[in-house]
Amino acid sequence: RCDVALQFGQRVYTATMVKARTRAKTVRKLPPEQGRKRAAFARSRARILASTVELLAQVGPSATFEQIATHAGVATSTLYQHFPDGEALRTAASLHVLQDWERWMLATIAPVSGDLEKLSLSARLFLRSGQTHPNYGRMTAYFLGPIVEQLPLHTNTITSHIHALATKHLIATDHLQERTAAFVNCLFGGLVGQLRHEDPARADYDVELALGLLGVPPAHAKFLAHTKLPPLTKPKA
Predict the structure, then answer these.
(1) What's the count of helices (H) and strands (E) in the chain, helices before strands?
(2) Alpha-carbon span 189 to 198, nearest angstrom
(3) CA angle 34-37-38, nearest 5°?
(4) So what's the pLDDT on residue 6?
(5) What percent of the chain has pLDDT over 90?
(6) Cβ of 223: how many Cβ atoms within 10 Å?
(7) What is the C-alpha to C-alpha distance for residues 154 and 183, in angstroms, rounded to an integer?
(8) Cα(17)–Cα(158) distance, rounded to whole angstroms?
(9) How large is the average pLDDT for residues 8-23?
């Protein structure tokens, strides 16, 4: 069975590489003016998303397509060139600000040794995102319902991290899906509480409880959740 799996994997890899080379050749053959148009389109989309994040963090879900266009300084028709409707734009903006926070978070936890230590620190940073990334924090609170509906998109990094910890037997391995869901729900609930009333001690206690849901022994969970934090200054763009 291992041989069959290896052969299948090789076929998938080969097919993927062929498609990648084909796409690469297509990109290289693009006329200069088409390449410039594509780059301009990407820059326009990025500006619209950044502006949308800014407005949604201030106004919340009530922001209209027209308000977003005005805030971005573009025509409504320009928005439609990038997004089919307001829901698609809000979803893209939510993911855009999430990715911005995740890049910062991953860079912040990179120097930390220990997989469980990295998970604990990422959770503590998440509950402080209202301080480091106010737009991300506010949008998470405003759009908690839609985010829950798209939870796999928003929790892909942390879910992968938890599964890696389970593989190494650093956390409990039974009922992993349920434990992961409980961990994530605890963090999202904690973030909403932090945005209403900033309380670092409470944030760390929530992380301690969340780690316990993954089967981390109480004493170790307490240590991980209350150890000294690195500076929480967001790098300048």
Answers:
(1) 14, 0
(2) 13
(3) 90
(4) 38
(5) 33
(6) 15
(7) 14
(8) 28
(9) 46
Q: How many CB atoms lie within 10 A of CB 134?
A: 13
Rounded to whole angstroms, how far apart are CA atoms 85 and 79? 8
| Contact in structure between 130 and 195 (CB atoms under 8 Å) | yes
- CB contact at 8 A, 136 and 185: no
Position of tokens 């316990």? 212
Side chain identity at residue 101, one-letter code: W
Find, among 121, 118, 122, 139, the residue nearest to 130 by Cα: 139
The gap from C-alpha 95 to its chain's centroid, in whole angstroms, comes to 7
Q: Are the CB atoms for 172 and 179 separated by under 8 Å?
A: yes
3-state secondary structure 178-234: HHHHHHHHHHHHHHHHHHHCCCHHHHHHHHHHHHHHCCCCHHHHHHHHHCCCCCCCC
51-63 confidence digits (pLDDT tens): 988 898 888 878 8
C-alpha 114/C-alpha 109 separation (Å) is 10
Question: Burial letters for 3-24: b for 16+ Cβ neighbours within 10 Å, e otherwise?
Answer: eeeeeeeeeeeeeeeeeeeeee
Nearest to 150 by CA among 139, 138, 163: 139
Convert the pLDDT of each residue in 74-91 to its tens digit: 898 888 888 888 888 888
Average pLDDT over residues 188-210: 91
pLDDT at 225: 97
- Tokens for 82, please give them: 């990038």
* Lookup: tokens for 164: 């890696």
